Amino acid sequence: MRRPLAPVWLTRPSRFAGLSPRNAGAVLAALAVLLLATLLVFATPAPPAASGDAANRADDQADVMLYETIVENVRHGGPYYTVAADAMRSGDYPLKPFVTVRLPTLARVQASVPHGVVVLLLYVLAAAVALAWYVRLAPVFARTPPRIVAMALLAGGLMAFVQRDLIAFHEIWAGLFVALSLAVYRPAAWLPSVAFGLAAALIRETAGLYLALMAILALLGGQRREATGWLVAGAILALVLAAHAHAVAAVVRPLDPASPGWSGQLGFGFFVRTMTVSTALALAPLWLAAPLVGLALFGWAAWHDPLGLRVALLLAAYAVVLSLFGRLDTFYWGLLVAPLLLVGLAFVPDGVRDLFAGLSDRRRITVKRIVR
Questions:
Q1: Per-residue model confidence as pLDDT tens digits over 184-229
Q2: Residues 6+ positions from 323 with CB-CB distance below 8 Å
Q3: How far apart are the first and last CA of the chain?
Q4: Once rounded to an integer, what is the mean pLDDT over residues 88-97?
Q5: Could you tell me the pTM of the whole model?
């Protein structure tokens, strides 16, 4: 095994340092396939574009306005489930199955405090995510410039998460809590990570996939106490969902519409599309933004740290979910993992350099027998 080269940006070599030429070639081939797969975005229909006109907000942000209406009616004393059912019924939203009705957590919290406080809480949460990730990543990079680049990439991922117009959107808050949970994760001090992960799932139950993935990885790593913590969080979510289903059933009427289902099967290109519209990549042309999504996934896998692997697997898991079950009108599921995506680009230089170094290594050890 050859000695890894000195890192470019990182303080330690990437996960791909020291690979044999054959293994390095295999990883490079996989990266090429991944980058080509991102171009499937051009075969995927785009979500309806917003007009950007404030007069058309009712059409551009119909879901957000629905949640705002529910919050206002709860603030004025209305029971959550009655208010939510009436608002969804008037907007011709499906009320079956029960998961079409959001959990009451976010609406009740927002209804209990003034709107200005809610805005402040959103900014504080976003700032906490940025600070926690700076603390986590500062020792990873050898110099100040790459640290700045990593933080700029994080800011690009948080672009949609500091918009006041989206403050009633559940995925905005859940995505920030998932990002914060990962930032504070430590194998020896996992309880805060579990707490923030549970907060995300109690706001948007689709974050339950994050709880399940973390539990599986803890079990595979032999961390039984940590796995128990994640499983307990999942059990709490299951109990809350059971109570939620009972409450929704009490307000649903026989003639209320049902969801068309979640079997869009739009493919990997749809995941790429959701990432481009959920981050600063929305400002770039699609031919550039799409491959950057693939490079970001590769970058997280290249970071030689258990957290890097966890983020890479989390992104891959939601890529599968969006590819198989997402519909054009559920593209916002991607917001649950969008905050961290672009940070993966900061690990790309070391990962790519180490792969090409491994591929070009042709040194051989020759053993000679000398007879005297």
A1: 999 888 999 999 999 999 999 999 999 999 999 999 999 999 999 9
A2: 265, 266, 267, 268, 270, 271
A3: 31
A4: 90
A5: 0.91
